[in-house]
Design a protein that fits this description.
- The protein is an alpha/beta fold.
- The protein folds into two domains: 216 residues, Vaccinia Virus protein VP39 (Rossmann fold, 3-Layer(aba) Sandwich); 149 residues, DNA Methylase, subunit A, domain 2 (DNA Methylase, Chain A, domain 2).
- It is 30% helix and 12% strand.
- The chain has an eight-stranded mixed β-sheet with strand order 3-2-1-4-5-7-6-8, with helices on both faces.
- The chain binds S-adenosylmethionine.
Length: 400
């Protein structure tokens, strides 16, 4: 059988390629395209045999696309134009130009691809760019379905709510097709239940696989659901958390359908000392941190600023597991700085390592970074990437 020819646009470190390997090992990435030099180094390191085009997508001509004769497109266009708190420049943001270029060329291809998968942030679903995409797909005869999914629906203890679109031509219509709705769980998780839900008009509802934090974003949520705590409304019971939030966290931590964070962690070793939060960050941000233990079954979205900016960029790990968080924070604001720091230090808080984030994202252990890529750069690249298992599952659904 001839391999499925795949074009990977905005390839970054190759999350899509990794997902393709997992779900469709007979496929071949005929070209990966990205302008970012550093991301390209990581991509080459892991997929040395794949033709990597280090150029802008808007610089690719119809003839060049034509020559690739691709059957499938996987793409994660830049998300900044669509983030809820960004300027939402949408189609007028220069970063959308390359995507619009691709959409303009697609109907002109002599041989259209059969499959397309697009990933973006929550927010894309209400953009004009999405309208253009849907119009182009309709004009090219694609059937499509949209999703809003987080790795938590696969039992992975990490929230990363993302928009996905699956589209295909000349295939049976998707059995779960609900074009006017955005599905919030995998249809193949339990097709029977799903069909029952559909009959009851519940398809498209936000499912229980999403945490409340994902269902209704907190006020002033950052690009990835991060929050500006100054606008949160009390009364706060502990840290800056309301009783409702604490309850939610507790119920997440007892949801046995989700794995424990401990399954994704490296063994504690000396080099981890570089990941401990510095005193300045502890004193300044302690109240805003999302603190988790290895036994927890949740973590917040790791964004590209993780390890550099503290607030709202991802959870931090409490490695002194026997210390009671409540006892550390009790009346802490009344203490002098030195004492405050002493108490906070007993928690032994550290950042997740890049390897641990890669584990949560589903990258296999043989996926690595070239040595010269710094820790901060790794966080940045991983923050832009995606959950491999989730996309692998979507590719399987796409291929039917
Ligand atoms: C959201 S990230 C994609 C991440 C990727 N899926 C991964 O797993 O790492 C978007 C990528 O698009 C690239 N990019 C942005 N604008 C581009 C353009 N005009 N042409 C080519 N690549 C572009 C960025 O360098 C970035 O790596």
């Amino acid at each position: 059988m001839a391999p499925l020819r795949v074009l990977e646009l905005y390839s970054g470190i190759g999350g899509m390629h990794q997902a393709l390997k997992e779900s469709c090992p007979w496929a071949e990435v005929v070209a990966a395209v990205d302008v970012n030099t550093l991301a390209n180094q990581v991509y080459k390191h892991n997929f040395p045999g794949t033709p990597l085009w280090a150029k802008t997508i808007e610089g690719i001509t119809l003839q060049e696309f034509e020559r690739l004769s691709f059957d499938m497109v996987l793409m994660s266009p830049p998300c900044q134009p669509f983030t809820r708190t960004g300027l939402q420049g949408d189609v007028s943001d220069p970063r959308t130009k390359s995507f619009l270029h691709f959409l303009r060329l697609l109907p002109r291809l002599q041989k259209l691809p059969t499959y397309l998968l697009l990933e973006n942030v929550k927010g894309f679903e209400s953009s004009a760019a999405r309208q253009e995409l849907l119009q182009t797909l309709a004009a090219c005869g694609f059937d499509y379905q949209e999703f809003l999914l987080s790795p938590t629906c696969l039992g992975i203890p990490n929230s990363r709510l993302r928009y996905f679109l699956l589209a295909r031509r000349h295939q049976d219509p998707f059995p779960f097709r609900a074009p006017a709705q955005i599905l919030t769980r995998f249809p193949d998780q339990n097709l029977e239940d799903f069909l029952k839900d559909e009959a009851a008009g519940r398809v498209g509802e936000v499912s229980s696989s999403l945490s409340p934090e994902e269902k209704s974003p907190v006020p002033n949520a950052g690009p990835d659901g991060s929050s500006d705590s100054s606008s949160l409304k009390g009364p706060f019971l502990f840290k800056l958390e309301t009783a409702e939030e604490m309850e939610r966290k507790q119920s997440q931590d007892t949801d046995c359908s989700v794995q424990m964070l401990g399954d994704f962690l490296e063994e504690e070793y000396e080099e981890h000392s570089q990941y401990f939060l510095p005193p300045k960050s502890l004193l300044r941000y302690a109240f805003l941190l999302d603190i988790v233990k290895p036994s927890c079954r949740r973590s917040t979205c790791f964004t590209k600023g993780y390890g550099h900016y503290v607030e709202g960029t991802g959870s931090v790990l409490q490695t002194a597991v026997d210390v009671q968080l409540e006892s550390v924070f009790k009346h802490i604001e009344e203490l002098p700085e030195e004492e405050k720091l002493r108490k906070l230090s007993t928690l032994k808080l550290r950042y997740f390592t890049p390897r641990e984030i890669a584990n949560l994202h589903g990258f296999p252990l043989d996926f690595g970074f070239p040595e010269q890529v710094t820790v901060r750069q790794r966080y940045r690249l991983l923050g832009n990437s995606l959950n491999v298992h989730l996309v692998a599952r979507l590719i399987s659904i796409l291929l039917g």
